[in-house]
Specification:
Layout (H helix, E strand, L loop, with lengths): L3 E3 L2 E3 L15 H5 L15 E6 L3 H13 L5 H12 L7 E4 L4 H7 L3 H13 L7 E4 L8 H4 L3 E4 L5 E9 L4 H12 L2 E10 L1
Parallel strand pairs: 3-8, 4-7, 7-8
Antiparallel strand pairs: 1-2, 5-6
Helix pairs in contact: 3-5
Length: 196
């Protein structure tokens, strides 16, 4: 299997949810994932897809990616999300909902960007850095606080754009990102998250 380098020691991939060496996530944890709730289309977001519900093992996978640097499952989950996105019709571009600069600096990566790269690869599209965040992080905010987050587009876009994030809770981040993308020229925006 694929290995990752940590210092001078080679470690096999591990399931972020249960820690078992091997495919990440492992088949036992995949079997425990529940379907994500359905999304009601909005003016900004035509459609939203997610791999699994944000509870139990699903919640653990996302939290360990975001806050514990467990990236072993990103490839497998990102490719699976890309396969789901392939069912929404032709896609012209793939981008992501950026985390805050401080969180990116603390973690050393942007989890949504990592997932978006795999989604874009599956769809045969470039993964474009399109959005800039205006406002802080969503974690820990109530619904009103989440609605304060805004995004601006750094470039024009067109056609159908898939915007990737790690989790959809209230949908505020995806809606704000979709609004910015539509203002920049997108005719249809599809949200894609690992969990919801």
């Amino acid at each position: 299997g694929v290995v990752r380098m940590v210092g001078a020691v080679l470690l096999p991939p591990r399931c972020p949810a249960c820690g078992v060496p091997g495919p990440a996530p492992c088949s036992r944890c995949i079997a425990q994932l529940r379907p994500a709730p359905l999304w009601e289309p909005t003016a900004e977001l035509a459609e939203a897809v997610a791999l699994f519900a944000h509870d139990g093992v699903g919640r653990e996978l996302v939290l360990r990616l975001k806050f514990a640097n467990h990236r072993d499952a990103v490839g497998r989950l990102g490719r699976a999300l890309g396969a789901v996105c392939a069912t929404v019709g032709p896609v012209d571009a793939v981008t992501w909902v950026p985390t805050t600069a401080s969180r990116r600096a603390d973690r050393g990566f942007d989890q949504a960007q990592l997932v978006a790269r795999h989604v874009a690869h599956v769809l045969g599209r470039r993964c474009m850095a399109t959005l800039e965040r205006r406002g802080g992080a969503q974690s820990g905010r109530d619904r009103a606080g989440r609605a304060e987050v805004r995004f601006e587009c750094r470039r024009g876009v067109r056609g159908t754009v898939v915007v990737v994030d790690d989790v959809r809770t209230s949908g505020a981040s995806l809606a704000a990102a979709a609004s910015a993308l539509r203002a920049a020229g997108a005719t249809r925006v599809v949200g894609a998250t690992l969990s919801a």
